Amino acid sequence: MKKVVIGLSGGVDSSVAAFLLKAQGYEVIGLFMKNWHDDSVTISEECPWLEDSNDALIVAEKLGIPFQTVDLSAEYKERIVDYMFNEYEKGRTPNPDVLCNREIKFDVFMKIAMQLGADYVATGHYCRKGTLMNEDGSETYQLLSGIDNNKDQSYFLCQLSQEQLSKTLFPIGELTKPEVRQIASDNDLITADKKDSQGLCFIGKVRLPDFLQQKLKPKKGVIVEVPANIQQYQRVLPIFKDKKEELVYFAEKPRYAIEDGEIVGEHHGAHYFTKGQRKGLAVGGTKEPLFVIDTDVDENVIYTGQGKEHPGLYRRTLFVTDEELHWIRTDLALKTDETMEVMARIRYRQPLQKAILYKIDNGLYVDFEEKQSAITEGQFVALYVGDELVGSGVIS
Questions:
Q1: Could you say which of 47, 127, 158, 201 is catalytic?
Q2: For the chain, which terminal residue's Cβ has fewer other Cβ atoms within 10 angstroms, N or C?
Q3: Active site residue 127
Q4: Which residues 6+ apart lie within 8 Å of 31 measured at CB?
Q5: For the whole model, what pTM was predicted?
Q6: Residues 69-79 pLDDT 10s
Q7: Which pLDDT belongs to residue 293?
Q8: What is the CATH number of the domain that holds 176?
Q9: CB of 23 within 8 A of CB of 1?
């Protein structure tokens, strides 16, 4: 009998995943990951991890599977929290959920599972795994999007490797969320009607500025509103001598100075804000809401524009350096000067967008058919061929 260790989070998805594995004849062990200790940044009156671990224990008892809690908070602090602070300080916007999967669930947690003699690790993610047989008898693993388009979570797993996929099972990837809830209800699992968790993957319900202020101190600066008709948006397209020159041009981020607009307010730290953000600016009196179009953490200035159609929000092309480019399908990795047509997304739940990849010496350009709103440095771009996620990278 194959042994599977499942990350039981105390939610309905992992509960049903555990139920299905047991029904399929696996020997199942449930582990709850405790990832964070500092309750000072969670919303008072609630201690999410205690309630969740209790629910996970009740589910394990109901299913008759062994259960224990593992404390991964030291690894979390080092690999996720410190990384987040560092990225925000540089004016980039990290994605902790993607990192949590790469660094914790499918690395630290997976190693613990293997020490327990597991053949596989399983999670309650809405995605699927495919297996291709190679001519030499070896196998290549595919990360496929979940059947439920509303819940597909393949994006969050865009940094997984062939090695990690080889030892992973996604029991609910073929199901929709309503089907998962129905299975939980039919089998009297306590999590059947539990709301989906919101917030950062490692803290639960958290106020992000409060969290960031632990390390990144507030620093007063100005908010500048940049009009939609400034000169740099009116540039006449040059004649490009080759494709690379064109890509460099369209990937270039607009650069702003305070004199490009007018000061309309104050903020408490440019590093707390991200491109495309609307909330938290506290500036009124504009015809349309203000959106952040850029942040300058060195000068501590936030640049904004009116309305979600403001040209400062849009860019056609992004770049990923070789150091931050990752191929799940290593056999499809592009060589210098090669291109590939893909569908791509730059954030979770964004509808897939047509793009062409261009590989150059030191990285990869992703050139979209249509301009994209709020391409944000530090976030991940995920690359799909059909319903398969083949690679990803951190946006530079």
A1: 201
A2: N
A3: no
A4: 5, 6, 7, 8, 67, 68, 69, 70, 109, 112, 113
A5: 0.93
A6: 999 989 988 99
A7: 97
A8: 3.40.50.620
A9: no
